[in-house]
């Protein structure tokens, strides 16, 4: 923040711990002495952005929101996806307080309950153990991974929608069976290439059985290698990345119906699109 008037006006409302502890970012976020990240409340402009669910879905609004409320992260595109939920809960809490209102239907009597959970409590439910960062393949190659970034995830979402639309239009189009099959084939090869590209983005380094190391800056070599390995090895690497990308906040909680007193365990649906409606 270079504007002295804004700097005097806007102050962090709270500090949160990042599940990644600031790892995996090219430029590490500026953290407090306690290793925590400052979160600023939303501005009036941010609130307008979050009220539009379409805007949030396309990812750009999420980036703009984080830029505004978490200025100590230089490039929000680099956020590992497992940090995202903590950051969003933090922004929500900085702006509206820690209580989150939820509408939950009772599975027993279908009464619509208005329940409340505590965002601050959710932020405290980290895992005791991080997922392992590397995986050793049967061939004795060791692969060091990191979680998907927000950029990876947005790319995947945009691509998935594009492919779906293409597949729909192919079903409708006036094509011969051969032409249609050829187009479908091409589309699926494109999806496969994109997926391999995303996995390659999440590899920090590969160590061969002879202890030769290939780092992520040799991305072309790693990408070609990925395209030549067995499905079993590929799946092991993918599982390692997905475990690292998993959301670490425990969203399970015990609910009780206000009408029939039925008790059940449910999860908080913290979908970005409905998250800021409150
Ligand atoms: Zn009930």
Could you characterize the architecture of this molecule?
By secondary structure, the protein is α+β, with helices and mostly antiparallel strands. The chain has two domains: 4-128 and 258-275, no CATH class; 134-245, no CATH class. Helices cover 45% and strands 17% of the residues. The chain has helices at residues 4-9, 44-50, 53-57, 60-69, 81-96, 119-123, 150-172, 177-201, 219-226, 231-245, 272-275; strands at residues 14-17, 36-39, 99-105, 112-118, 134-136, 142-145, 203-207, 213-215, 252-256, 263-267. The strands form four sheets. The chain has a four-stranded antiparallel β-sheet with strand order 5-6-7-8. α7 runs antiparallel to α8 (177-201) and α8 packs across α9 (219-226). It is globular and about 55 Å long. The protein binds zinc ion (ZN). The site of zinc ion (ZN) has 8 residues, from loops.
Q: How much is the radius of gyration in Å?
A: 22 Å
Tally of alpha and pi helices: 11
Order of strands in the sheet with most strands: 5-6-7-8
Query: Approximately how much beta-strand content do the residues carry?
Result: 15-25%
Domain count: the total is: 2
Question: What is the mean predicted local confidence, pLDDT?
Answer: 87
Bound molecules: zinc ion
Main sheet attributes: strand count, strand direction, barrel closure = 4 strands, antiparallel
Please tally the β strands and state the result: 10
Order of helices and strands: HEEHHHHEEHEEHHEEHHEEH
Distance between the termini: 28 Å
Helix content: 40-55%
What characteristic shape results from the CA principal axes?
globular
Derived structural class: alpha+beta
Name the poorly predicted regions. Answer: none
